[in-house]
Structure formats: C-alpha cells, structure tokens
Design goal:
Blueprint lengths: L7 E4 L7 E4 L5 E4 L5 E7 L1 H5 L3 E8 L2 E11 L5 E5 L5 E10 L20 E2 L6 H6 L8 H11 L1 H11 L4 E7 L4 H14 L4 E5 L2 H9 L4 E3 L17 H5 L1 H11 L3 E5 L3 E3 L13 E5 L18 E8 L3 H19 L7 H16 L5 E3 L8 H6 L9 E3 L6 H10 L4 H4 L1 H9 L18 E4 L9 E5 L10 E6 L7 H15 L4 E5 L8 H15 L5 E5 L3 E3 L15 E5 L7 H15 L14 E9 L3 H4 L13 H11 L4 E3 L6 E2 L19 E3 L8 H17 L3
Parallel strand pairs: 1-4, 10-11, 10-13, 11-12, 15-17, 19-20, 21-22, 21-23, 25-27, 28-29
Antiparallel strand pairs: 1-2, 3-8, 4-7, 5-6, 5-8, 6-9, 13-16, 14-18, 15-16, 20-22, 23-26, 24-29, 25-26
Keywords: Signal
Protein name: Nucleotide-diphospho-sugar transferase domain-containing protein
Family: Belongs to the glycosyltransferase 77 family.
Length: 707
C-alpha cells in the first residue's frame, strides 16, 4: 500500500512568480510513522533555462528539529524526490527558486538518506558533526560570560535575597529595546502572585532603566553590544539567545530553580502544581499555530518552547544548557547569527535522548493553561484558568504591543496609574493609604461591626489598618436606600470574613452625586481604584442580600475570567440580549467590529467577580449612562466584548434577579430563599418602602433557618 503524500509545487524565478498550487501555500500534510513523504516540484521553463535551483523546505510541526530543505537543479517538467523513515507528524512545505545554495539550507533530524539528484545542506548540526558527534572546537564567548557570572559571589547572594527563602525565582533578560516589554511582564507577575522576578540586563542602558523602576536586576556582560539585536530570525539574534541559558545557569549556580519567562509574557494567576513536577525541565508546548494543540504526547512529538520553562537544579540540566550555548556559538561560526535558542534547545534534547545521553527528563505544560500566542490571541480554545499567555508567533515589539493592547494587556496604557504606583512603591508603604473612595482617602476601621459601614470607609482585616487583604467586597450606596444598613450591611461584613478575610470598601457619602447615573458611574470608579490595591474584587449593588452560608465566590472564578450571571432565556430572549449588546457597543465602543467577539453574552452587573486584569473594563466610564441600557451594565458588557474577556458564569444562585418575582415569575429556577445572593433589581417594580420590606422578609426567612 502506497501511503505516500504528494506535494505539487510550482516555482518560478524571483523575476516571475512563485506560488504553491497543491496544496495551497502554507497548507499541511500529515504522515504516519516511517511513512514515505514523496513530493514533486514543477517549475516554469525559464527557471530551468536560467540554471536556477528549486528548493523545498519541509518542517515537521511536531518535531522542530525534523526539518529538511532539499535543493535540486531545475529541469523542465519538474523534479521529484522522497524522504523515508520520517517520524509521524504534520508537515509544512515552502518552495522557492534560488541562485546557489545559502548556508542556511537545512536538514535536521535522523531520517534515512534522501533519494534522488539532491544536494542536502545541514542546519546547526553539519554533516561531519552528525556523523562523528564532534563538539564545536572554538570556546564560545557566552560561556565566558557564564564563567564571570558564576564567579560573582555578590550576584549569587543578590539572587538568593530576591528569592526570599523560596527555591524558585522567575528569571528573564532584556536589552534596552525590550525593557518596556520586561516591565509589562514584571508588573503582571507582581499582581498575579508569581514567584519573585529577576531580570538580567544585557546592557548598561537596560540595567539603569530596570533599576530605576525598582526591578531586581544585574548586568550580564557578553562583551558585545546587544542593544542593536532584537528579534528572532534577525541578524545578531543568536548573541541574545545565548544569554538566556547563561541567565538560567547563573540562577541554578546560586542554588535556586529557575522559571525562565520571555519578556513578551503576561501572568494572570499564581502557579499550579504542574511546575513542581519532578522532571528536569517543564516546557511550554511550542505548537506552531492556533489550532495545533498537543496534549498527552511525549515531548519529542511537539516542539518545546523556550519562552516559558522551568529548570531544576540537576547535572543533566546544566549539561543540556551548556550544550545549547555551544550550539548557538557553533551556528554563529557558520554565519547563522540569526538563529534562536528554541531550535538549539530542541536539538540538544534530541541529541541527548538519541545519541549522547543521559537525557534530561522533560515534561510539557498543559497548553490551554499555559497558552502560546496563537492559541490565546487567535482562538477561544484556551482555558479561563490560564496562568499566563505568551505573545509569540509574532515578531517585533510594535506588533507585540499592539496585540497586547487589543486585549487590555499592555498595562502602561490600560492601567497607567496602577503601573506608575507599582514601580514607585516603597516596600514599607502603607498600601491602604493610597486607596481612593469617592476621590478622597476613606476612613480606615477594623473589619468588625456593620455599624462601621457608614460614610466612606474601608473595613480592613489587617489589625494595623495598613496592609490590604488580597480580596475585597466593594459597595456603593448613595441616596435614599433605607434597606441597606439594617438588612444588607451586616451580611456583607459577615461574608467578607467567610471569603478569606476580605476587606470591605464602601462609598456611602458623595455630595456631588444627585442622580442614579452618577451613582452607577461611581460604582465603576470605586472598583477601578480598589483594583489598584486588591488583586480580586467582589463588586455588588446595594440591593443584594447574601445568605450567611454562601460559598466563597472567589473560588468559583479564575483571575482571567469575569464572574457574572448571564441573563439567559429565563430573563430575556437571546435575540434581545444580542441587540442590547450591539447597542451597548455602539454607545461605548463606536469603532467596534460588531462581528468580532467570542460570544454575544449579556450579563447582569449587580454581582461581578473581578481581578486586577479587569481594570480596562471599568475605567473611564462616560458621564452619561443610559437607563434604557441598564446604566453601568451596558458599559461593562461593551468593554467585556471589546477586550474579549472570558466569562465565568455564576448562575442565578449567585444573582437571583428581581424579575423572577414579577415578569419572569413562570421562569424562576427556584424560590428566592434557595439562592445565595438575592438581587432586588428594578425588575421588582417596587417603591423604596416595598423593596425594603421584600429584602427584610428574605433576610428574616434566612435568619429563621440559621442562614
């Protein structure tokens, strides 16, 4: 049975046209293990007449080190050849015409000989090295930088001081052009609760800028100017790439494990147990496209991404990383100074496994929890519980910043005040002293009696009234709200204690507010200021009653996601919800492409679980909020769609809406007394006195049952 796959490629000279006709340019071809991959290349007649070569590069998406480029003398009618013994995989093909064979043409991997009239060039491992196993003969300059770093006792002490008793730190490196990306990463790491961060500076300029932002840093001196070298696949990148394993080895030498993080990464949440596995390395899955998600596979069936990986202290890890430096230096010797550390690392792991030994043990991080750029920025297939996102599959700082901005993740623009505060904050500063409530400093009182919930106040769980908790419950209650203090405030204070000793932030006095629109706007502004201090926030309306046995709502919602209750068909038809969302986006995001959003969900804004990542959803609300679009609800829904934030659905037990007592009574999922959060919305159609009686009856019923 002939299992061969045939690729037909039409190529012309650069002066004419070059295109792949079957499969289309960029299409993929699958192969089973040991299957023959046979392909035919056709060329225009003038290509053969001019004596050009036609080349085809095949790269296995599942094995980054399995890449072949064959160049043959062009003949009229085309040429054909085949590869045997290749691994199972998904192949990409690129074909082109050329005059002569540049040194970057490649063959990597261990497939058997290529048949046909073919010139084969080798990449990273030249032919002699592959056959003999000889190591590079020239001492690499990066190893000299490593030796200097290892000999610097002060640097080791500095790294251990940053670790603060932990055995793991986040390590990164930046030259001057990448300092802004590094600061974006560091800000997210601090807010998300990642391990302590140390950014190695690759130039004096970078060191000065990082130090001025109170980022732990030290210079790694490579002996060459690295500020002119920027991106992978650009001239001189190998010199920067070699410093990544140097930085990791320096951390290991200090007696710490290293979590290497590229500067184009943002953190969302603390790290789960996957990073504490026993493997020597734990790599991000380096899928080559947004739909290429490898799960449960041996790491040799997927590319290991070196933008995110954990390295443990072990002789095998040290040997592997020193070999990566040698491979990069060897590439520079052969003129491949644009080569990156990722392919070199995959190659070293391959050679350790199949020839050198003993191999370092390797695990892959779950790709939906640690998504690469294609998966996170181009699909909705990542998990709402994602820990981080890597802005790769994109070259150039400007392109990366633009992509971050589209998701509200370029914090210098989406959270400018917060960023300035973070990088200027003294370690001994009183965090609660910087909290604003109603544009002014609130009173600070202990988290005690609900009677203290008056005026503008923060009830702090910390006895010093200075340290902020990581969580808070925030409420605005302005105007005539007779139900709030007697019936709802005590339950809010009780719930804050249950929810991990959260603080309570309360705005109850704002003379400038005389309208509902103003109060709703102040609700969003209060949340924005609170998220400058707190990592997580429960934002509730002052018409929400909480049952005393309500579970910890923060545990239901991962930091990346917005926790809210969707108003489904029990409340309104899906077409009405879509119309409300479209009108809200037109009102608050007029440049929006209404066809671009992961879903058309419409959620109620009376109970929201937020994190520091959601500041862009709340900041700068307009002065005029439309009651026809439910005030602040329209704005938050529009911003959620704009930044494509995933929604963690809370359900009606955490936001039992008032219309279930009136217009939607027949659709009520259960009685109000069985909900954890009852929201006395305007859908009750009640006067203030009647609403007070309704909430009194709900809370009295709960109290009679010990709830």
């Amino acid at each position: 049975l002939d299992l061969a796959r045939r690729l037909f490629v039409v190529v012309a000279s650069a002066a004419a046209w070059v295109r792949v006709v079957e499969p289309p340019d960029g299409a993929e071809v699958s192969s089973a293990a040991n299957e023959t991959v046979r392909f035919s290349i056709a060329c225009a007649a003038d290509v053969a007449r001019k004596g050009l070569q036609i080349c085809a590069q095949l790269t296995n998406k599942r094995l980054s080190y399995e890449s072949f480029t064959q160049c043959v003398t062009a003949r009229e009618g085309g040429v054909a050849f085949e590869l045997r013994g290749v691994a199972a995989g998904v192949w990409r093909c690129r074909a082109y015409a050329t005059r002569g064979q540049p040194t970057s043409f490649s063959r990597r991997g261990a497939a058997t000989a290529v048949e046909g009239d073919v010139d084969v060039a080798w990449f990273v491992v030249d032919r002699e090295r592959w056959v003999t196993g000889l190591a590079p003969g020239t001492p690499p300059a990066a190893l000299a930088a490593l030796q200097r770093a290892r000999a610097d006792a002060g640097l080791g002490a500095q790294l251990r001081e940053v670790a603060k008793g932990s055995n793991l730190i986040v390590a990164s490196a930046a030259n001057a052009p990448h300092v802004n990306l590094a600061l974006n990463m560091v800000y997210s790491a601090r807010r998300a609760g990642a391990p302590p961060v140390f950014v190695f500076a690759l130039s004096e300029t970078a060191e000065a800028r990082l130090a001025s932002a109170n980022v732990a840093t030290a210079r790694l001196d490579s002996g060459v100017d690295l500020d002119a070298r920027r991106d992978v696949q650009t001239k001189g990148f190998a010199a920067i790439a070699a410093m990544k394993p140097v930085a990791v080895l320096t951390v290991l030498h200090a007696g710490l494990d290293a979590l290497w993080i590229d500067t184009d990464v943002v953190f969302f949440a603390p790290f789960p147990a996957e990073l504490l596995e026993d493997a020597d390395f734990a790599f991000q899955s380096g899928s080559l496209g947004p739909l290429d998600v490898a799960r449960g596979e041996d790491h040799f069936h997927v590319e290991a991404c070196t933008g995110v990986y954990r390295a443990r202290r072990s002789p095998r890890v040290v040997a592997a990383l020193e070999a990566v430096i040698s491979e990069l230096e060897a590439g520079v010797e052969r003129g491949l100074d644009w080569f990156g550390d990722q392919a070199a690392t995959n190659l070293v792991l391959f050679e350790q496994r199949f020839r050198d030994g003993p191999p370092a043990t390797v695990s892959l991080l779950e790709p939906t929890i640690f998504p690469a750029g294609g998966l996170f920025f181009e699909t909705d297939r990542y998990s709402p519980r994602a820990v981080l996102a890597h802005n790769n599959f994109l070259v150039g700082e400007a392109a990366k910043v633009a992509r971050f901005e589209r998701r509200g993740l370029w914090f210098a623009s989406s959270q400018p005040d917060h960023v300035r505060r973070e990088f200027s904050r003294r370690s001994d500063a009183c965090r609660l002293a910087s909290l604003l409530v109603g544009g002014a400093r609130p009173q600070r009182r202990p988290l005690g009696s609900a009677a203290d919930l008056r005026g503008n106040v923060v009830l702090a769980a910390d006895p010093s009234l200075c340290d902020a908790a990581s969580r808070a419950v925030a409420v605005v209650s302005l105007g005539h709200r007779p139900w709030f203090l007697p019936h709802l405030a005590p339950r809010i204070v009780h719930y804050a204690r249950r929810a991990g000793d959260a603080d309570v932030v309360f705005l109850g006095d704002y003379a400038a507010c005389a309208t509902d629109a103003c109060a709703k706007r102040q609700k969003l502004l209060l949340a924005t200021h609170a998220l400058n201090i707190y990592e997580r926030l429960l934002l509730i309306d002052d018409t929400v009653a909480i049952r005393r046995d309500a579970p910890d709502i923060f545990e239901l919602v991962p930091p990346l996601a917005l926790g809210a209750t969707l108003e489904d068909v029990r409340i309104r038809a899906s077409a009405e919800a879509q119309t409300l969302l479209a009108l809200s986006r037109l009102a608050h995001d007029p440049d929006a492409d209404l066809g671009v959003t992961s879903d058309a969900s419409w959620f109620n804004s009376g109970v929201l679980v937020l994190s520091w990542l959601h500041v862009p959803l709340l900041a700068d609300p307009p002065l005029a909020l439309d009651p026809a679009l439910y005030w602040d609800q329209a704005y938050v829904n529009a911003m959620r769609a704009r930044y494509d934030v995933p929604v963690a659905t809370l359900g009606y037990r955490y936001n039992y809406l008032g219309s279930f007592e009136t217009a939607n009574r027949d659709n009520a999922p259960f009685p109000a007394r069985d909900a954890y959060f009852v929201h006395a919305t305007t859908g009750l159609l009640m006067s203030p006195a009647d609403r007070t009686a309704y909430l009194r009856n709900i809370t009295r019923d709960w109290g009679d049952r010990g709830l």
